[in-house]
Amino acid sequence: MSKDANITAFLDGSNYAVVGASTDRSKYGNMVLRTYLQKNMSVIPVNPRATEVEGIAAVDSLSDIKETVHGISVITPPAITERVVEEAIQQNIGHIWMQPGAESDAAVAAAEAAGINVIHSGPCLLVVLGFRDAH
User: Fold this and answer.
1) 3-129 fold
2) Domain locations in the chain?
């Protein structure tokens, strides 16, 4: 699939999670979460150090999410992203969007080997969905 087709497949679902969601509004992990909210998309913040992000109850990990998740946005350091991909494989998550800076060759390879639609090396979800920073 082309990158555009991968993005369309990623966005053609419901129930998303943001791994690396941040309570700090200046961080990408917060902006990505707010982008989903601005588009009225169902999203769950994943952050083991927060109880909620942007008024939404946060979970510690993907395995703590009870409903089916169509896709995840990952905003974590590459070594953490590799663990996130392993967890996504276990949870049968079919779509992963690694935000610029989160990807590693090992994480991309593991996701692709598992048959996951993985978006990496740009573009950023903020650009594709048109994030508006309205404090």
Assistant:
1) Rossmann fold (3.40.50)
2) 3-129
The strand pair at 56-57 and 71-74 is best described as unpaired
What digits encode the pLDDT tens for the residues 25-51?
A: 999 999 999 999 999 999 999 999 999
Distance CA 124, CA 135 (A): 20
Q: What angle do CA 115, 70, 100 make, to 5 degrees?
A: 75
Tokens of 12: 């053609």
Could you give the CA distance from residue 23 to residue 85 in angstroms, rounded to a whole number? 23
* pTM (2 d.p.): 0.95
Check whether the bond before 78 is cis (ω within 30° of 0): no
Q: Per residue in 23-59, is it b (16+ CB within 10 Å) or e — as a string?
A: beeeebbbbbbbbbeeeebebbbbbeebeebbebebb
